[in-house]
Amino acid sequence: MSKITLLKPFDEAEALVLERLLADHHIPAEIITYRDTAYDGLFQTQKGWGVLNVAEDDFLKAKEIIRQWQEASPEELDWQNTDYNPDNNEII
């Protein structure tokens, strides 16, 4: 299955949060960083931190999930409830 770039995260923290968000919706994501210790981050200054890739079949759903998450206010996200079901935005 072919993978395509969903977005370019600003840093590792953002990449990990978005990877987990997608995993909560059963969408596997692949983080690829441009960090190279041999060149001390030279490629990151030129290309950005890295990319987040998803399967081509999951691209539109993943893009919509990320959009909703980015537009949501903190009050709309249930951070503390462990019974929260991210697939339908309701408490189980």
Topology diagram in text:
Elements: E1 3-7, H1 12-24, E2 29-33, H2 42-47, E3 50-55, H3 59-71, E4 84-85, E5 90-91
Antiparallel strand pairs: 1-3, 2-3, 4-5
Structure, explained:
The protein has 92 residues and is of the alpha+beta class. The chain has a single domain (3-91), classed as Alpha-Beta Plaits, CATH 3.30.70.1530. The chain contains 3 helices and 5 strands. It has helices spanning 12-24, 42-47, 59-71, and strands at residues 3-7, 29-33, 50-55, 84-85, 90-91. The chain has a 3-stranded antiparallel sheet with strand order 1-3-2, covered by helices on one side. A two-stranded antiparallel sheet has the order 4-5. A hairpin with a 4-residue loop joins β4 (84-85) and β5 (90-91). The longest helix is centred in the N-terminal third of the chain and has 13 residues, at 12-24.
